[in-house]
Structures are given as C-alpha cells and as structure tokens.
Amino acid sequence: MTERKTLGVREATDPPAIKKKGRGWEINSARLDQLHERARDMRRHPTDAHKALADRFAEADFGQYSWKQFPVIGSAIVDFACLELGMAIAIDEEGDPLTHRRDKSLEAVGIRTMHLKAEEILTDMDALLPRIAAGMRMRIGDKQTARKAHYRANPGQTSGRLPGRDGPPRGGPGRSGPGRTGYDNKR
Q1: SS3 for 181?
Q2: Gap between the Cα atoms of 121 and 124, Å rounded
Q3: Claim: this prediction has a pTM higher than 0.70
Q4: Taking the CA of residue 2 as centre, how many other CA atoms within 13 Å lie in the half-sphere pointing to its CB?
Q5: Looking at the DSSP assignment, which residues form a beta bridge with residue 76?
Q6: Could you tell me the domains of the chain?
Q7: pLDDT tens readout for residues 128-157
Q8: Looking at 56-60, 68-72, 98-102, 170-174, which range is the least confident one?
Q9: DSSP conformational letter for 15
Q10: pLDDT band at residue 43, thresholds of 50, 70 and 90?
Q11: Nearest residue to 114 via CA among 133, 98, 96, 127
C-alpha cells in the first residue's frame, strides 16, 4: 500500500526584499507604463523652474555624477535624481499631499530627497547651487562610510581593484614570469 501525502503549511517568513532593478519593483506593468508615459509628458512640458534647473545642471560639471530629469523610481516620479549618489531633488511648486509618502518610500530604498522651492530656483539660483553641492558631498560621505562599514563587517571579501585589499593580482595567473610564451619572449 502507498502512503498518502499530506499538505503542510510553511512557517511565516519575512517578505522578499525589493528588487530595485528594471520592472522588479513588483509593480503592475500597466501602472509602470502609465508612470513612464507621465514622466515622458513631464519631460516634454517642463515648468519654468524645471527648465532653469535643467539648464544649470547641463552647464555644470559634476564629474562622474549625472542628474536625470523626471526618472521613474519604483512607483514615484521625481523631478531630478542622481542615482549614483542615491539623491533626488523635488521642486515644490504647490502643496502636493503625496510628497511625504513618496519621500518615505524613496528613503526606504536608500534615496534621500532634497526639496527646493520653485520661487527660489527662478529668483536666486546661485544661492541654491551651494546647497545642492553640500547635499551631494553629504551623500558621498554617507556612501563612503557605508562602504567602510561593509568592508569591516565582511573582512573575508576581497577586491583586487582597490589598493591595499587582498586579492589576486590584476593580471591573473600565467600573465608574467618565466616560462611565458608569446611574442615578448621571442626577442
């Protein structure tokens, strides 16, 4: 006689982590398409404050950091975002009741939001640029601190790209030394 199989109930586990890449935010594809269409429309028809800040960002040299206008991050559209730093800029033109909720959801995935008033952008842009630069420096410091804490917490991990870290040489095995074959040994 064969044994009967019974169904079991799994123990409750933590919900899966947010997948922050592509369509992995677990958002309905129709909703995500609507968000992208809305962001595209916002890029086509920006306000005066958005135009002024975008022009200033186009002229500025931020090195390796770049600002995107109206990117879709999860289920939110932010005015400007530097994804390398995890920083967003929101231009407050009129009271939007969803800003606090959007900022909380962005903070949950590691993106901090800086709020700027549209009037300040249009009237005194030169006073805002040092605030933006200070926010960028703060995020760079946060990233460096987090990276150092990660390396201290995980000493077994190696990275051959960083000086002073354990790991194989960049050339790998067999790239140098006696017995190497190739064009250089024929001289």
Answers
A1: coil
A2: 6
A3: no
A4: 3
A5: 73
A6: 29-151 (3.40.960.10)
A7: 989 999 999 999 999 999 989 988 888 877
A8: 170-174
A9: P
A10: very high
A11: 133
